[in-house]
Design a protein that fits this description.
The protein is mostly helical and 228 residues long. It is built from ten helices and no strands. Helix 2 packs parallel to helix 7, helix 4 packs across helix 5 and helix 4 runs antiparallel to helix 6. The longest helix is centred in the last third of the chain and has 37 residues. The two termini are 31 Å apart.
Length: 228
């Protein structure tokens, strides 16, 4: 059996159903430029859902995971119309829900402290390993905040000029945003696995296989080096 093909087929087939739904809502979903976005959202939505299913969650934890999954659904619509500000807002929401989930800090207002607390209980190689992914999440979070609160004082007064800028840069921005979304998810899934290694070890083989397949090889090698 070709397991790699099977794992990919899972989210490719699921994504086809997702796109069929989007086509029933929108005139054009621009599959030429945005298909990778729809695939990525479906792929990582499934991964987070696997963790939700196997973890023994309390009510507040369940709410945070549900918020993340709901934001993935909103991202589909965000990519269809490519509303970059809404997409960045959702990135920020996803990351904040995630770090609150990992640290069990549901009400703290010091986001930097919450980020820092992810690695607080670790030392040595494990701490450095997790700091890589925490740093990536912090960078994406900070960039999203800057984008959302961008200075608009120097905007052109004519609206058509803004629409022209959006159109000219859109293809490049789409590719960049898809890569950022993937990087965010790889970071979250790597942290989740490290924080819940015993639960991962008890997972069914198919669930483990799927979670491994969607993580890039270089990240799996980095994880393997922790054992040496």
């Amino acid at each position: 059996m070709d397991l790699i093909t099977d794992y990919k087929k899972i989210y490719v087939d699921s994504c086809k159903k997702t796109k069929d739904y989007l086509k029933s809502v929108y005139i054009d979903i621009d599959e030429n430029n945005k298909n990778d976005a729809y695939l990525a959202i479906d792929k990582y939505y499934r991964a987070i859902s696997i963790w939700k299913r196997v973890l023994d969650l309390e009510e507040k934890e369940t709410k945070l995971i549900n918020n993340i999954l709901l934001d993935y659904c909103f991202l589909l619509h965000g990519f269809v119309i490519f509303d970059i500000k809404s997409i960045k807002f959702l990135f920020r929401n996803i990351i904040e829900s995630f770090i609150r989930f990992i640290t069990n800090d549901y009400e703290g207002r010091d986001i930097e402290l919450i980020f820092s607390n992810i690695t607080k209980k670790y030392e040595g190689k494990e701490k450095k390993y997790l700091e890589i992914y925490v740093s990536q999440l912090r960078q994406i979070y900070d960039e999203a905040c800057l984008y959302i609160h961008a200075n608009t004082e120097k905007m052109n007064e004519e609206i058509y000029t803004l629409l022209s800028i959006q159109s000219n840069n859109e293809e490049i921005e789409i590719k960049k945003t898809i890569k950022e979304f993937a990087r965010m998810n790889v970071a979250m899934l790597s942290i989740l696995k490290k924080e819940n290694s015993e639960t991962y070890d008890r997972m069914k083989e198919n669930a483990q296989g799927y979670l491994n397949y969607i993580i890039p090889l270089e990240e799996r090698i980095r994880e393997k080096e922790l054992e040496n």
